[in-house]
Design goal:
With about 400 residues, the chain is α/β, with parallel strands linked by helices. About 40% of the residues lie in helices and about 15% in strands. A 6-stranded mixed sheet has the order 3-4-14-9-10-13, sandwiched between helices. The N and C termini lie far apart (about 55 Å). Bound molecules: pyridoxal-5'-phosphate (PLP).
Amino acid sequence: MNIAFHPDSRGFYGRFGGIYIPEILKANFDELAEKYLAILESDDFQNDYDALLRDYVGRPSPLYKSEALSKVHGCKVYLKREDLNHTGAHKINNAIGQILLAKRMGKSRIIAETGAGQHGVATATVCALMKMPCVVYMGVTDIARQMPNVRKMKLLGAEVKPVESGNGTLKDAVNEAFRDWVTHPAETFYLIGSAVGPHPYPDIVARLQSVISSEIKQQLLDKEGRDNMDYLVACLGGGSNAAGTFYHYLDDARVRLIVAEAGGLGVSSGKTAATIALGSEGILHGARTYVMQDKDGQITEPYSISAGLDYPGVGPLHAQLAATKRATPIAVNDDEALAAAYELNALDGILPAIESAHALAALHKLSFKPTDIVVVTLSGRGDKDIDTYMKYAAQYGINPNL
Ligand SMILES: *Cc1c(COP(=O)(O)O)cnc(C)c1O
């Protein structure tokens, strides 16, 4: 296959990606681009990273066959259980890797942005582990709806800085983190939470999350006698869990790649975060990608019930996957995601993150053959979403007073 799903030397996946940054950060990005590959590929890094993933995060995460969902969908449904990781989502894989990178680059201060709070918690966690000061930028809307994660970050010793601009969500938090970095460029490492931003971040994050697909390959081979599935499904915010889920299958034409993006109240409702369905090409957070924008190029405020998918762009790899039709986007609305979350909870006793529930709901929009193997990444657990799930329970036939 000659379509590029890995960045060229200037950070482009086809026409997407690149490095669109203020002059003052140029030295930082030059340094990062020059050093990251050698560090990530070194034995020293790999040994530390593998040991922490195994002993601290609890990897490999299981590949669980849900007999109940297999029956519902008439095929074999496997769940990749990133919800069982320490701190409750896939985000920790990336946070561990980036803090090891920051240390090897001699940085002494970590900044991060967070939406659902999962990346903030993951970053605050690895900063506690490595004894590094940590500042997390978080939109005020997200602070209100993800309070347990805000408390966790504070307990871990991180400073949580509320961001009032825009509608107080992830996009605004990313802007503030960049602003901070411009003011403290030398000693600070920006520990970005998704496969977004200027090169080389999308590649760093995809590589660090690719542990997901390398484990799936081995686990599927052990369970099914073949290392490829027919469908591979992940939810799509900025695109880190999807990038890690797809990584070792990007060039494997036997595998259909499906991304579930957040439809919100409906793709044409004006309250949505379905970037691939609605977006057009533009620059967001330092990269050329699909962006939800108005005719003047102003970013449209996204909406989703899930804080982790409430982002008006996608990482450049996902723009390339969609533009070349390698991946198929499916928009999943709030109500469909909620139904899928209650369904998994009732059938398997697993309460998924509301983000991950979008990937589960996408299965209801596909049809499968009995021999099909479908792997869905369960990116996180639903503890942080308990209030949301309680609020809507009665509407889905569950008695919340039980
Ligand atoms: C942050 C988050 C997401 C979305 O981020 P990606 O970078 O697209 O993976 C999905 N699921 C959970 C549980 C999250 O915390």
